[in-house]
Amino acid sequence: MMTSISIVREKETGTMEVLLVSPIRPLFIILAKAVPYFLLSFINLATILLLSVYVLHVPIVGSLFWLIMVSLLFIFVSLALGLLISTITRTQVAAMLVSGLVLMMPTMILAGLIFPIESMPLPLQWIADILPARWYIQAVRRLMIEGVSITLVWREVVILSAMAIVLITISLKKFKNRLE
């Protein structure tokens, strides 16, 4: 949600013009907006994993390395989605509404965390398939709880990687098109 207002805030305050006249390429502007949130998300991930293991006594049966790698991939996809929202909206309020109402609520309900995806009607299953959280939750369940190897979650990793590439590509194209 915070990533979705990062570029919009620059446009509203007028500092985007300063960035545009500098020799910085759009890719670096977008990545620079994502790096602080990526680091903060990594700290959140570490905190959550530590609390899960040492306070809630949830065992990590599978590989901690692959759990962290898949989590970092999901963080990147989430940030890319926030950057896309930031490049297509004009105000911070609109960016917050899109990220909050359009993404957060369906993600909580349709990602398979509360309700099993298999028991949903087919149209809702299709919507769930385009949510990055659905694939992340499935991968984490298999890696952390079932203890399977990374070879058995390649489908989820490939889908999340494809989502990351598509979202960053669209963000770059929209960013360039809107600012030229």
For the report, how would you describe the main beta sheet? none
First-to-last CA distance? 26 Å
Helix content: over 70%
- Beta-strand share of residues: under 5%
Count of runs of 4 or more consecutive helical residues:
8
pLDDT averaged over residues: 86
String of helices and strands: HHHHHHHH
Number of domain modules:
1
- The overall strand count is 0
What Rg do the Cα atoms give? 18 Å
Characterize the structure shown.
By secondary structure, the protein is mainly alpha-helical. The chain has one domain (3-179). Helix content is 76%, strand content 0%. The protein contains eight helices and no strands. It has helices at residues 6-13, 16-21, 26-54, 64-88, 92-110, 122-129, 132-146, 154-179. It is globular. It starts with 5 loop residues before the first helix and ends with a helix. The mean pLDDT is 86.
